[in-house]
Design a protein that fits this description.
The chain is an alpha/beta fold. The chain is 46% helix and 14% strand. It binds (2S)-2-hydroxybutanedioic acid (LMR).
Length: 394
């Protein structure tokens, strides 16, 4: 049997991680995988996470199973962080999942379970693993226009026109903030227009919220998700704690369903539990418990928020440094979009050959579509990158 497996194409992001590791050059710059790095190039364990883990280590008395949906306190704390008081408690059901990808996967499973013919609308471009998982599950995808390569912003009229083609029962996958891979985001008024289109078509929104707190702030980044949840009859939200708590390898995510008709909530909750049971039974608990301890303890929460805010501001500062450096070297404003983008990523707008040249000649690693992880930079490497970009003719 094993000999008959079809070899799968390598995941471009993970493949790049390996290429970078294998490159012996000093001074190489990793702008690949979406992991935050500080000025020293380290992905730190956040202070509040360390404190919570120390407390957990000394206080935890059992590692017996929690529930199929995970610890209810985790769902309560995370739903508060994501949804605030935008919807009533009885409209929400939630399941802990292994990371944000686990939540995305369970969300896709859920919509296919509810409608085997479901079509999922995805932005062009989107995180490549969205498409990969949808293909694997045999779910039809429809792309909607999103990125405008000429402006580095969103092709909003194109996006609206494509979303208007949705039918009742279709699912619209949206990035809640910090669009991956482009860094280009909708304004809140534009979100309201998208909401109106979804209301008109009867399509079901599913929001991937993987970078809350990395864009404009915790509440600002959640505002579109809250607006969708409050306005439409139903929605799904896949939330991740990987980035904003820096607990990537602990795999803490949450899949949330919101139904304005609260009589649907028990069935949604049972379905979430059933799907967890089928795929991995009980979700991982360590990261989720650490998150709960932080969110429920005012001192830890304050400290976590302060460190997250410093992280956000450092990325924003790097963006502005890079945009300024490129403005200086190019004598034009054509890279100004980098300062307007939000989150970890920006799509530079380089061709695959230029991306290859950046890697081979300058040791700069970015994903083939020219997605850069801004957090891979520091004050010393910004001018080097800017020079490499101009030298490459971008
Ligand atoms: C990314 O987009 O780089 C991250 O979400 C990591 C991943 O799993 O691809």
């Amino acid at each position: 049997m094993f000999a008959d497996f079809k070899a799968q194409p390598a995941d471009k992001i993970l493949e790049l991680m390996q290429l970078f590791r294998d490159d012996p050059r000093q001074g190489k710059i990793d702008l690949g995988v979406g992991v935050y790095r500080n000025a020293e190039g380290v992905t730190p364990v956040m202070r509040a996470v360390k404190s919570a883990e120390q407390r957990l280590w000394s206080e935890q008395e059992t590692k017996a199973y929690t529930g199929l949906l995970g610890d209810p306190a985790y769902a309560t704390a995370m739903c508060g962080l994501v949804l605030g008081d935008a919807v009533s408690q009885d409209s929400i059901a939630a399941a802990a999942t292994p990371g944000g990808t686990g939540a995305v996967r369970q969300g896709f499973e859920m919509v296919r379970y509810g409608n085997p013919d479901v079509r999922v609308f995805v932005s062009d471009p989107t995180w490549p693993n969205h498409i990969s998982i949808l293909n694997y599950l045999g779910i039809e995808t429809v792309t909607y226009r999103y990125f405008d390569a000429n402006t580095g912003g969103v092709d909003f009229p194109g996006m609206l026109a494509d979303l208007e083609q949705a039918r009742p029962g279709d699912v619209i996958l949206l990035h809640g903030c910090c669009h991956n891979p482009t860094g280009a985001n909708l304004t809140l008024p534009q979100w309201h227009e998208v909401i109106e289109v979804m209301r008109k078509t009867g399509a079901l929104p599913m929001i991937d919220l993987a970078y809350q707190g990395f864009g404009d702030g915790l509440d600002e980044d959640a505002a579109p998700t809250r607006a969708v949840a409050a306005a439409l009859p139903e929605c799904l939200i896949a939330a991740s704690c990987s980035k904003n708590f820096g607990i990537y390898r602990e795999r803490a995510g949450l899949l949330i369903t919101v139904s304005q008709d609260a009589s649907n909530t028990p069935l949604a909750r049972d379905t979430l539990a059933f799907l967890n049971r089928q795929n991995y039974s009980f979700p991982p608990d360590h990261g989720a418990r650490v998150v709960t301890m932080i969110l429920d303890d005012p001192a830890l929460r304050d400290d976590w928020q302060a460190e997250l805010e410093a992280t956000r501001l450092s990325m924003l500062d790097l963006r502005h440094q890079l945009a300024a450096e490129l403005q200086k070297l190019s004598g034009s404003d054509r890279f100004a979009f980098l300062g307007q983008h939000r989150g970890m990523f920006s799509r530079l707008g380089a061709t695959p050959d230029q991306v290859k040249a950046l890697r081979e000649k300058h040791g700069v690693y970015m994903v083939g579509d020219s997605r850069m992880n801004i957090a891979g930079l520091n004050a010393k490497t910004v001018p080097l990158l800017a020079k490499a970009i101009i030298d490459t003719g971008i």
